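Re: the 332-residue chain
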Amino acid sequence: MTGISGIFTRAITSIKTLPPVCGYLNNSVLFGAVRNFSVETSKNMKFVQFTHNDCPCDVRVGYLVEDKIVDLNKADPTLPTTLLGLLKDNAIEKAKKIQPSDSNTLSLCSVNLRAPIHGMDKILCIGLNYKDHCSEQNLTPPEVPIIFSKFSSTIIGPGDAIKLRDSTKKVDWEVELTVVIGKVASNVKAADAYNYVLGYTVAQDISARDWQKAKNGGQFLLGKSMDTFCPIGPCITTHDEIGDPEALTIQCSLNGEQKQCSKTDQLIHKIPKVIERLSSVMTLLPGDIILTGTPGGVGMYRNPPEYLKPGDVICSAIEKIGVLENKVEKFQ
């Protein structure tokens, strides 16, 4: 795996060569460069959730150090075992102070990665929020953010299958930078918005275009909320490690062929303004996620249109976060 790991590291730092690694990923190469840092001097982290093979229902939270995971609850049994639990208990800063040791550290290869957060109250999404996505449809960028939602039951994680029901024939891909809210946010001003952000992850806003466009009166919900239609992962990179979230390369490939490649500087409505708008009408809770929109290159607007089918493999990558890989299967 040495050659593949090297390709991946280059891909996730400069995002130039994603297709060669699609289909060959394992836990040890999902995240790009994970720095070997001192927890005492750095709050920058990549949070993950995982399970053990012998206990697949016991989801646990940790953070990455090189190719290992620090199991936070094992290090301190007073801490919750999930990331949402840490957020609800206001225990993130306590978790960040935990040092890796032989007794609390696991190899990435010895566990199964899960969605880096689950059980959130809200999944909020922004439509038509990339200039190049508007351009491929010959649309004028919207003056205000177009907000819609997905159910939290759509969440799946790295390696999980996107499952296609017989009721839809036009299922599409949309790679998206996703904001994870870290604390209660209501009536937040844009200038303060990043103070409420825990970090960022990669998402796929999988979309049944027939239900989104024609089978539900033009309302998005049913086309966006089918089971398994929101893969996220592989980790949540904290805001301080990301730096500027609107200067990242974002990419998606299908079966090794690049379909989307853009930069988050193409965002029309910027993250702080989106948080200000949302928090003016609802309270954002810890663990809520905001999918910020997708760049150009979706299947619906290709010539001819392209849609997902069983057997496909989607790789979604965002600089400084990692690669999320999901297979496509028929719903049983």
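Residues 2-14 form the longest helix (13 residues).
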